[in-house]
Amino acid sequence: MANSCYDMNAKMYYASDCDLSYLDGKVIAVIGYGSQGHAHAQNLRDSGCNVIIGLRHGKSWDKATKDGFEVYSVAEAAKKADIVMMLVNDERAAQIYAESVKDNLEPGNAIAFAHGFNIRYKQIVPPADVDVFMAAPKGPGHTVRGTYVEGKGVPCLIAVEQDATGNCRNIALAYIAGIGGARAGIMETTMDIETETDLFGEQTVLCGGVVDLMQCGFEVLCEAGYAPENAYFECMHEMKLIIDLINKAGVAGMNYSISDTAEYGEYVSGPRVLPHDQIKANMRAVLSDIQDGSFAGRWIAENKNGRTFFNSKRAALAKHPMETVGKALRDNMLWKDEASSSDAALDAASK
Fold this sequence. Notes:
Layout: E1 12-13, E2 27-31, H1 35-46, E3 50-54, H2 59-66, E4 70-72, H3 74-80, E5 83-86, H4 90-101, E6 110-113, H5 117-120, E7 131-137, H6 141-149, E8 156-162, H7 168-178, E9 186-188, H8 191-206, H9 208-223, H10 228-237, H11 239-257, H12 260-273, H13 276-291, H14 294-304, H15 308-319, H16 321-331, H17 336-349
Parallel strand pairs: 2-3, 2-5, 3-4, 5-6, 6-7, 8-9
Antiparallel strand pairs: 1-9, 7-8
Helix pairs in contact: 1-6, 3-4, 8-9, 8-13, 9-10, 10-16
């Protein structure tokens, strides 16, 4: 009997389910013009929507202006808007909302997010007379923009947290269609589920798990006397190849594309490095911290206390040989200019 935990039962939406006319006559204020902000704003504008930008004065203000948008303070943009999309960092969103958005929301407006963190952990509690929804592309901003320009899209998650108008889902679907998500597919979820699974995936697999695994492999090879350049290529550079294969065809498809020797090693050595029972026990502990708010509490406190731990870890990582060796190798690749441009774009988007 199939385990219902693994049954596919998520509600999916596509372009035929979305009606952009629900955005007709509405002003959309995109708050933030970083990685996601610039992508949402430009895609929505290209889809025929009326978009303004809400920012503090600085580099992003100049960039948004140069890109042809009307730019206002956050408070002014929120006041003018029918839909306010919060695309600022999680740790900044609550203060920006309290100072500049909260008092400028009117009954029937909508406030939207690309991640549920501040709603899930009640850092932001919108009034009962506004719609609250999530439109979350499952990809970085430059991919959201790039795929849209190519006529494609990035899959998105949709969640309706509060339907004050009775049309919140239609508005959210229209918004996601406007940024290109309906071209790929839209999966319905809740903001609680998105937040908990997103944090879990980042911490245990995508960022925390993968980075620690690559670092350990790099260090073991170097400590055994192998050249760090070889260690970088084998434990880090080839990660993209493997992930691209999995992304396109799943693990079985990846195994079909690699050598049988590599596949055999996967079966016999993977569980030795990552014993499933212990790894899953550790993962459950991480998930528990996410579910009960312990992680959120620590991250909120970290930001209130000067980010001492966060900044020290970031600085230490930048000095690690896997980073310095990797940068030197990338700088000498034939695709150096392309790689440098991508790194520069990512750096700029993170400011």
